Amino acid sequence: MKTSKRTFLKSLLAVSILAISGLHSGFTYAKSTDNLKLGFLVKQPEEPWFQTEWRFADKAAQDLGDVEIIKIAVPDGEKTLNAIDNLAANGAKGFVICTPNPKLGPAIMQKLDLMI
C-alpha cells in the first residue's frame, strides 16, 4: 500500500508529538493559548524536497491545531547544534531533523535529552 508524502509527514508529526509527551514525565499540555512548538531542521532548504516537507509539516500542524513548526536551515554541524540550543531556548519540545552529517547523531541525541 502506497503512502503519500502528506500522510507520512502527518503521521511523523503526530508520532513525534506522542513520543515527546510520553518521554517527558513532567510534560503537561492542555488546550490553551500556548502552542506546542516543534523544530523542523533541514540541511538544504533551497531543495524542493525539503520545501515540500516543510509545507506538509505546516499543513499537519494546522490540521492538528495548537502546534507551531519552527523551520531552520542547518547546513553544517555547528549550526545544527546551535539551532537545537535555540529551539530549546524558545520552548520547543522536540524536533524533526535531516542532519547534514550522520556522525552528529550522538551529539543531537544528547541535546534532545537536555531539551525534554
UniProtKB/TrEMBL annotation:
User: What Pfam families does UniProt report for this protein, alphabetically?
Assistant: Peripla_BP_1
Database matches in PANTHER family:
D-XYLOSE-BINDING PERIPLASMIC PROTEIN, L-ARABINOSE-BINDING PERIPLASMIC PROTEIN
Provide the family line.
Belongs to the bacterial solute-binding protein 2 family.
The record lists the lineage as: Bacteria, Pseudomonadati, Pseudomonadota, Gammaproteobacteria, Pasteurellales
Q: Would you say which domain of life the source belongs to? A: Bacteria
- Residues forming the Periplasmic binding protein/LacI sugar binding domain are 36-111
| Entries under InterPro entries matching the protein | Bact_Solute-Bind_Prot2, Peripla_BP/Lac1_sug-bd_dom, Peripla_BP_I
The listed locations are:
Periplasm
Cellular component terms per the entry's GO annotation: outer membrane-bounded periplasmic space
The name on file for this protein is Periplasmic binding protein/LacI sugar binding domain-containing protein
Span of the signal peptide = 1-30
Query: What UniProt keywords apply to this chain's record, in alphabetical order?
Result: Signal
The UniProt GO MF terms for this protein read: carbohydrate binding
